[in-house]
Design goal:
By secondary structure, the protein is α/β, with parallel strands linked by helices. It has helices at about 75-80, 100-115, 135-145, 155-160, 160-185, 190-205, 210-220, 225-230, 245-250, 260-270; strands spanning about 10-20, 30, 40, 45-55, 65-70, 90, 125, 145-150, 190. It is elongated, with a radius of gyration of 27 Å. GO terms for molecular function: DNA binding.
């Protein structure tokens, strides 16, 4: 491939979020200021947790980076036997990723996990245009380690990013099923420890080699097949209609009376 990138050296990374807090079957409809389907949420306090995921085109996934809302790390998180030893946990003010977290993920997760698997000289890293992916520090580290970051166009991740195309939806469904199962056993609140218990199980059910490879194929990347994406677009090419000529209407005509003469004179003055 171009730049000496082999199929084994193509990666896609992205973030996905999960809501923790009260477990309830009731739904609340938010204000209907948006167009389309109303947004439904569960009642009660909600806390957001983000998972940074990265997959390889040959069918394997890197260890994730979990981002909790908080100021400090809690010792109990790392004592949970369900948490794999190679997983990384970060904290932020709102449970979302930041520029610093994105840079640390690149340095401490992506580079170490992929160094021993390189086939060619370069690694292709497919990502969206999130601000934490576009910092000078992120680009500099990529350049130093022969990583080529490719940002997909805005609003196209549902078609072009393998994680969005074939992984995140079943991952959320699997996690949601585990939460619903807890609710049936009278658990009415999901906290960080509950998440760390459920998420590894959901992940192992979904991020299997066949699912990952099918996601790269469905996005037209590996094997390279742009038609897989183009056929999903509802594009109708039309021959543009040339703008109507104004020469007929604007051409001066011989006035036949005083009123027409005055009107034409006024028009000429305005022009």
């Amino acid at each position: 491939m171009q730049h000496g990138i082999a199929f084994e050296d193509i990666y896609n990374f992205d973030e996905t979020g999960f809501a923790m807090g009260l477990v309830a079957t009731a739904k609340v409809v938010t204000r209907a200021e948006m167009t389309g389907k109303p947004f439904l949420v569960q009642p009660g306090n909600r806390e957001w947790v983000t998972s940074i995921e990265c997959i390889n085109s040959t069918g394997w996934a890197l260890p994730p980076c979990i981002i909790f809302k908080g100021k400090v790390h809690i010792k109990g998180w790392y004592q949970d036997k369900a948490l794999p030893k190679d997983w990384r946990i970060e904290v932020s003010d709102n449970g979302w990723t930041t520029n610093q977290i994105g840079t640390r993920w690149l340095q401490n997760t992506f580079i170490p996990a992929t160094n021993g698997r390189m086939i060619g000289k370069y690694r292709l890293l497919i990502l969206d245009g999130h601000g934490s992916h576009l910092t000078p520090q992120f680009d500099e580290i990529c350049s130093q380690h022969d990583i080529i970051p490719i940002c997909m166009p805005a609003h196209s991740s549902h078609l072009l990013q393998p994680l969005d195309v074939g992984c995140f939806t079943p991952l959320k469904q699997a996690y949601g099923s585990l939460v619903e199962n807890k609710a049936r056993h009278n658990f009415n609140h999901i906290d960080k420890l509950d998440f760390l218990e459920a998420y590894p199980q959901a992940r192992s059910e979904v991020l299997k080699p066949e699912t990952i490879k099918n996601s790269f194929a469905a996005s037209g990347l590996v094997p390279f097949d742009p038609e897989r994406v183009l056929e999903k677009l509802n594009i109708q090419l039309k021959t543009p209609t040339p703008p109507g000529s104004q020469s007929t209407d604007s051409a001066p005509k011989t006035p036949h009376n005083l009123k027409q003469l005055q009107k034409q004179a006024s028009t000429i003055k305005k022009l």
